[in-house]
Every structure is written in structure tokens, then in C-alpha cells.
Amino acid sequence: MTTISIERSTNTKKKPPQDQLGFGIHYTDHMFVMDYSTEKGWHEPRIIPYQPIVLDPAAKVFHYGQTIFEGLKAYKTADGRIQLFRPRDNFRRMNRSNDRMSVPEIDIDLAIDALEQLVAVDHDWIPDLEGTSLYIRPFVIATEPLLGVSPSEHYKFMIIMSPVGAYYPEGINPVKIHVESNYVRAVVGGVGEAKTAGNYAAALKSQQEAKEHGYTQVLWLDGKQHKYIEEVGSMNVFFKIGGTVYTPALNGSILAGITRNSVIQLLKHWGVPVEERVLSIDELYEAGRNGTLEEAFGTGTAAVISPIGEMNWNGEKLIIGEGKTGQLSKSVYDTLTGIQTGAVEDPFGWTQQVEVK
Ligand code: COI
């Protein structure tokens, strides 16, 4: 196994109060870095004090967006244990994104080792107040200083960590979603399935316009016909219609969410009918009009389970479940966060303990 060097910070930062964490504002004392060159492959894995990095202004990441990221969380259990939620699945997805973006694959065992050691070094940054966790952001950037359009020959793989509270200011209360009819996020054959920066940059303008009209997020429709539901800005999406839960099937332009997959498995485990299939916005609105649309919620690492109380599509408002958090959304939230924080038994083997030596 490759040895990861550790340089400890001599200057530990003051921790923010746990009830005022926000999302992605504060960073822990250390970070992980590893470099890549075509001659050496991935090399020099190291944990060092959290610090700025120096890059050449010609680095390819700045010009052609060759970069990918992941998001996962570490939790502290009531009896003081530390656990990660499905970390191997995040690194597997990272390699799928790497492949799509012509980034060299990373060794998943090394990435897990790096992650566990980093979390152990900064373990006292994991908050334990209800609704908080340590958000972990692994990412890769293309660092070669060359303006020709071709895959970079140099990269950095890094992991940074941030103690967080709720992603949306609404917390577990329902969010309002604007259904986007003009802009598109991704098309089949594009990079929608990869967790790459450009997908998020492409979404900003629509998100900004939605916000100006009082909506928290944007629901994306398919890029070709503007007809089929894909995902919300930072979440996958689920709808309970006539007793069955539907979520858009993965089609190459939708992010294969790990929370999405966990919710599908959880619902199946409970015997709740769940279907992954194409779902049109017309069908959803029809269910809303005829009273069979019971609940809607988004899923994501950052957002966890976020109930959707209102949607707006071309000016037509749809109030879902009287704008309140539905019973199933609440059960899914309670069970999933219970498994993540160790309060509920994990029959799926999703949680992985981190030992602090
Ligand atoms: C996550 O849920 O981890 C995400 O990547 C969403 C992020 C854009 C905040």
C-alpha cells in the first residue's frame, strides 16, 4: 500500500459554533493532495495543512474546464464513533466522471485510505449537533500550463473538508422549485452524467432568475424536447403519485446520485412501490391537477432529503401536499439520516467506520 505522508498544522483554526455552520463556508485544518504527470502517474500522496495552492495562469482547468468533483459526508455517532456514508461509491463515480472528462483514473483503495486518514487527522472538526456533518469534497483539476485543447498531462487530486449545516436555508422544510423551460443543463451524449464543474456553471443563470422570482432551485427538463423531468440543480428528484414513487431513469444526462440510489433501495426494503422511468412534466402536472400527486422530494449528499412544496412551470403553480413535508419524505429523511449518524441500524452495509489512532 502506498504511504501517505502527514504534515500536521501548527496553527489550528478556531471552530465555528455548530448552530451557525451554513454550507461550505469553513474549512478544516488539513487537506489531501496528490499529483499526476504522464511520466510518473499519480504520485506523492500527502496530507498537509489547509492552504492556498499555486497554479500557472495557463493551467488547463482555467481555460477548458477539465475538472471533476465529488461530495460525501462524515458523521459523529452519539457514542463518539466516526462514520462515512458509502465512500467507495463516490470514488467509483469519480472514476466514471474522470473517464468522461479524459482525466486519469484514481486508485480507489488509495483514495479511501487518504480519506480515512484525513478524517482521522481532523476528527475534532466533525460536528455532532442534529442536522450537521462534515462535508467532504474530493476533486481533480488539470494543471498543465498549455493552451492547446487536449487532455492535460498534469493533474492535482485534492480532498478538502467543511463542517456543514443544512444546504438550503429551508432545512427540512419544503422548497419551491422553478421548472426551467428555456435553458438546458445537459443533453444525452454530453457530460450531464459526469460530476464536472461546467454542468453547475451552466445552471447558474437559470438559478439566478429563479431566485429573483422566489424559487430556491431549478427543475431541469430534457435538453431535446423540454418535456421529460431530469433533475434539480443539486439534487435528484422523486414524486409519489397514486401510492407509487417515481424517479427519472438514468439516461446519460442525469447524475447517478448515491443518495438517489440509497432512497430507491430503502423504499424497496420497505415494500413501497418505486419505479425508475421517463416522466414527463405534463404527466406530473396532470397528477397534480387530478389530486394523485401526493409528495415530491429531492435527494443529494448536500441537500439530504429536501421536500418540494411548490413548483412553477410556465407560470402555472402546483402546490404539493398543501406545501407541507409529506409523511414518506419525513420517514425517508429520518431513516437515512439515522443510518448515517448511527442512530438507526444499517441493514445495507452503507456506513464505514473511521478509526482514530
Ligand atoms: C452534493 O450533494 O454533494 C453536491 O455535489 C451538490 C453540490 C453542488 C452542493
Note down, in words, how this protein is organized.
There is one protein chain. The chain has 357 residues and is an alpha+beta fold. The model has no long low-confidence stretch (mean pLDDT 96). The strands form two sheets. Strands 1, 2, 3, 4, 5, 6, 7, 8 and 18 form a nine-stranded mixed beta sheet that branches. Strands 9, 10, 11, 12, 13, 14, 15, 16 and 17 form a nine-stranded mixed beta sheet that branches. The chain has eight helices and 18 strands. It starts with a strand and ends with a strand. The protein is globular, with a radius of gyration of 21 Å. Helix content is 24%, strand content 29%. α2 (87-100) packs across α3. The protein has two domains: 5-165, D-amino Acid Aminotransferase, Chain A, domain 1 (2-Layer Sandwich), CATH 3.30.470.10; 175-341, D-amino Acid Aminotransferase, subunit A, domain 2 (D-amino Acid Aminotransferase, Chain A, domain 2), CATH 3.20.10.10. The chain binds 2-OXO-4-methylpentanoic acid.
